[in-house]
Design goal:
Elements (H helix, E strand, L loop, with lengths): L2 H26 L2 H6 L4 H8 L6 E3 L2 E8 L6 E5 L2 H8 L2 E2 L3 E2 L1 H5 L1 H4 L7 H9 L8 E4 L3 H11 L3 E8 L5 E7 L5 H4 L3 H13 L21 H10 L7 E3 L3 E2 L6 E2 L7 E3 H7 L2 H11 L1 H11 L22 H7 L10 H12 L3 E3 L4 E5 L6 E4 L4 E4 L3 H17 L12 E8 L8 E8 L4 E9 L9 H16 L1
Parallel strand pairs: 1-6
Antiparallel strand pairs: 1-2, 2-3, 4-5, 6-14, 7-8, 7-19, 9-12, 10-11, 13-16, 14-15, 17-18, 18-19
Helix pairs in contact: 8-18, 11-13, 11-14, 11-17, 12-17, 13-15
Amino acid sequence: MNSPIRRVAILCMVMFLALMANLTYSTVFRQDALNANPQNRRVTDARFAQDRGAILVGNAAIAQTKPVKDRFKYQRSYAKGPLYAPVTGYYSYLYGSTGLEWSHSAQLSGQARGQLIDRLIAQAAGRTPPGASLVTTINTKAQQAAWNALGGLKGAVVAIDTQTGAIKAMVSTPSFDPNALATHDIAASQATWKSLNADPDKPMLNRAAKEIYSPGSTFKLIVTAAALEHGMTPDTLVDATNYQLPQSTHVIRENCGGAKITLARSLKISCNPSFARLGAQLGADVLRTQSEKFGFGQTYLTDLGQVASKFPDNINEAQTAMSALGEYEVAATPLQMAMVAAAIANDGVVMKPYVVDEVRSADDLSVISKTQPQQASVAISPATAAGLQRMMVDVVTSGTGTRAQIPGIEVGGKTGTAVTDRVRLPYTWFVGYAKELHTAVCVFVEDPQTSLNEATGGRISAPIAKAVWEALR
């Protein structure tokens, strides 16, 4: 073989080896990146054309896929879309997915490890692997009652099983219709996306788990827990006179019915001067530690992208006093405050919240996985929890939360009103538990749409919680 032919042969061999090496590298190391590339429409088309499993509330599908005669072959649809949108999220060709559609996409599309056998059987038969179904913990009556009771107000409701952490209701308003984003009419989907993002009310926000707000006086439950854990009792007398913040001219003024009142009465009437003073006495480190024991700083409900609630760092005595009122830079999700009430009702034990009860195979006959309740932490002792329960019952029986009363059921709660600025109305809150129903509820109303005198947690939020509990009876 002459040298020119040899050189051409060597060059061809090198190019062939380079091609094989690049193909091997792309297959082994770049597959995930190439599949995730938004410009890879082939992968996007294939993914969007899957027969995804259903998302269920009880035996009813709130998200399911049906065959259609277009290039995608299957259409994702959502029953009562706006009602369940904070849970299901959406599944869109252009905009990806959120909620359970995102966190459990592998199971819903049949690609999870636990579905290997079903996948192999489907491939052997020349079929697309079927998706698994998700059975949620949501109670349809509680969900609908929360939606109806909010009545169009901007806010959120969370109901949680005090003993297991199972989410019974999660509503966020205003909401949106996931069907409008899942449509195969791409131009219509784009128009909906643009409209939703331009809406000043931000309907795609999950206010229940993915936004944090000043919790107002509901935070006094955590302050009271810290006080009881550090030697006080419900009968301990606290100073209820007007309180001037340290190194400040600002005075917290309120007539709490006497210069000295019990801690129990202070919580019952939500006395600001006594709690500000108490917070300063306990100190920022004690309040922060107690908050963290209840779950602040943690993101347990990763299925729905829960954000962490926070207690501020590096604060002085005056800022600590204001933080004890649930103001300054204290911020919490409604889910977190529902967890606080649930832990108190559960003798001090915080349970990890969850919203998926079971993952079932495509034939709905076998359970692929089932969520087992898990303890997250012990926030307070059983004795402290018992004392707090009695105090919270007093709040509902004859304090600021009387509108949450339910005949024949022990209800304990705490109202809250958080002033965010001097322009808009304050946030209104109610958190509590119904003992016989084993359910804690948090109601947050961002815009009460009423007069300033009426914008209180007791008037606006407590009746909403009552409606949810009554739906569970």
